[in-house]
Amino acid sequence: MKEAALVAGVGFGAGILAARCVFSAKNCDATSGASKRIERCQVFKDLAVEAGQCTGIKEIIDNILQKARKLVRCEASSLFLVDKEHGELYTLTLSGPEEAYEVRIPLDKGVAGHVAWIGQSMIVNDAYSCAYFNPEVDSKTGFKTRNMLCVPIYSNEKLDPPSAKRDVIGVVQLLNKIDETCLQFTEDDLVDLEELTLLASVFLWSSEVTKFKKWAEAESSQLIRSMTRLSSLRGGASLSFLKTKPSSPKQRSRLTSAEIEAFMKTVEENVIDDMRAVSKFDVLAYSDNPAKKDILIPLLVQMFTDLGFVDQFGFTPAKLTHLCVMMRGQYRNVPYHNFAHGFDVSHSVYGYLTKGGLAEKFEPTEKLALFLAAMFHDADHHGLNNQFHLRSNHPASILLETTASEMGSVLEIHHCNVAISILTDPSVELLDVLPDDQRTKVWRDMISCILATDMKEHGTFVKEAGQLKKPGSSNTLLMMQVLLKCADISNLAKPFEQSKKWGTLVQEEFYAQGDKERELGLEVNAAFDRNQGSNTAQNSLGFVAMVAKPYFELVCDIFPSISYVLQGVQENEKRWIAIAANEKP
Predict the structure, then answer these.
(1) Burial class (CB in 10 A: 0-12, 13-18, 19+), 378
(2) At how many degrees (to 10) do helices 436-451 and 364-376 cross?
(3) SS3 per-residue string spanning 522-580
(4) What is the CB neighbour count within 10 angstroms for residue 583?
(5) Each residue's pLDDT tens digit, 98-109
(6) Would you say 89 and 83 are in contact if contact means Cβ atoms under 8 Å apart?
(7) Which residues pair with 74 in a beta bridge?
(8) Do residues 385 and 522 make contact, with C-beta atoms less than 8 angstroms apart?
(9) 123 has which bridge partners?
(10) Which pTM was predicted?
(11) How many CB atoms lie within 10 A of CB 59?
């Protein structure tokens, strides 16, 4: 009865493993009497019960590490989680005999990073002679590492197909074996820790990850409900339920007729041709040139025209010009997430629909929602990521009339609110010409697409997007989200010199955030610390291998007509590999 209650109380996945432990413990006791095996099984049973009673991920991790040290007998243990957004591993706790530290390391550094990268366990019995060992952590903590045992933790989600490779969500790392009979980690230790991580993955995957996903979905639903209310309103009605209060709101310039006409000046035909050719067009050549930057406004308007929105919805060039100028005004002067990026992502979506021939897959309102989402997807981005806003309690993350700041998608919710505010501005009111049902659909689809750009949910999203490869799949909203996320990182697929410039801008924005973190007394992530420098080639290769290339492969499986984006990434990867080889000491 006691064993049955144990199995019933820890959940299905953990219960199966706990049942195995109960059986093994009885078997050991009845046949071999091996005290080591009995102790091992008891550790598993204790973890199954105690972790199941934990209320937070940090408590779960502490419990896992305590059991790991008891099971294998070592001096210290750490559990690193994978942060794909930044290409890093980070600890919520690093447990030792007396103290705890928090550490972040790039995925291309350290034994733990290598294990996360290759997805295979490692025994290192002479740390300082191992090519992958990163002595910087010892220098930071004052700890002296002799030997190590590292095991990857795999996600516990259901795979489709079942043969698909599981994502590595973390790494358990044990340091300095202290067993009186052996001071080196053994193959038996490896087996013990691998089985322990199997149980650990059940709790890690089902606790904070699941909770975050539910929160994100609830917040998205709340925002979509608000947008549905908005869709039924007419000019002059109260919009107070939608209003947000971002920090230091930007003034909106309402243009005079003369100013609108100045923006609508004729653009040279060869420039329009380059824009329509997609791959030849370099937005940075215009945005960085004061004499040319205003040309981007009529080019955006031209995209609206080419996509059929002027004919289908009756949008006037003057209204579209006003909209594009106001949209530009909401992008800040930050290195990467600025108006050039907003234009670039919009232009990439335009290319998928025109050059890629994907326009025929969508209804006119769906194409409009996708294009508007591309325009506004990073509006009023501060050049600081979600984690900075949450760690620093920055006012921009609070969004006073929502609870989004506690849910993780701080920036994406804010970008939605900026888009709503501009599109409903009395001088624009772009969607008022649409019938109620079409207006409702545009709001819903636009918001859903912007929310999908949150990289924290990338792994979950990729799993969901995989269903589009099945014959007969017709989820057009999911298709739109897939394309927007592809466009959001499409600079990696541009001609190499363009892509390289974008990579430099990304790194500079990271450094600017690191400077801000240092000013506020926050721990500076290694990849964001300009004092440590950074290997742009290695950083680019890491992001391409971990995120971009697998995603572009998926996108081009779904949409073969835009295979040029995958070809671009593959060509650039070869260039980065050559550069990285020359940069090696």
Answers:
(1) buried
(2) 40
(3) CCCCHHHCCCCCCCHHHHHHHHHHHHHHHHHHHHHHHCHHHCHHHHHHHHHHHHHHHHH
(4) 11
(5) 444 456 677 777
(6) yes
(7) 177
(8) no
(9) 149
(10) 0.59
(11) 16
Q: Which residues pair with 101 in a beta bridge?
A: 94
pLDDT digits (tens, 9 = 90+) for 445-500: 998 899 899 887 888 899 999 999 988 888 999 999 999 999 999 999 999 999 99
Amino acid symbol at 46: D
Which pLDDT band, with edges at 50, 70 and 90, does 583 fall under?
Answer: low
Give the up-direction half-sphere exposure of residue 537: CA atoms within 13 A in the CB hemisphere: 12
Give, as one character, the DSSP assignment of residue 101.
E
Residue 330: both structure tokens together: 């909401």
| Cα distance from N-terminal residue to C-terminal residue, the chain | 63
Longest dimension (CA), the chain: 93
Residues 6 or more apart in contact with residue 183 via CB below 8 angstroms: 146, 147, 177
**Separation between Cα atoms, residue 568 and residue 562, nearest integer Å:** 11
Q: Which two tokens stand for residue 306?
A: 């080419």
On the question of a cis peptide bond just before residue 246, with omega within 30 degrees of 0, the verdict is no
Q: Are strands 148-154 and 100-101 parallel, antiparallel or unpaired?
A: unpaired
Q: φ, ψ for residue 91 (rounded to 5)?
A: -105, 140
Q: Which residues contact 109 (CB under 8 A, 6 or more apart)?
A: 134, 136, 526
Task: Enumerate residues 6+ apart whose C-beta is below 8 A from 265.
Answer: 298
Measured distance CA(124)–CA(413) in Å, rounded: 45
Helix (H, G, I), strand (E, B) or coil at 431: helix
CB 520: neighbour CB atoms within 10 A?
13
Q: Is 85 helix (H, G, I), strand (E, B) or coil?
A: coil
Residues 6+ apart with CB under 8 A from 402: 219, 222, 223, 244, 413
As a whole number of angstroms, the distance between CA 399 and CA 498 comes to: 35
H or E stretch including 405? none
d(CA 200, CA 65): 10
Amino acid 484 reads: L
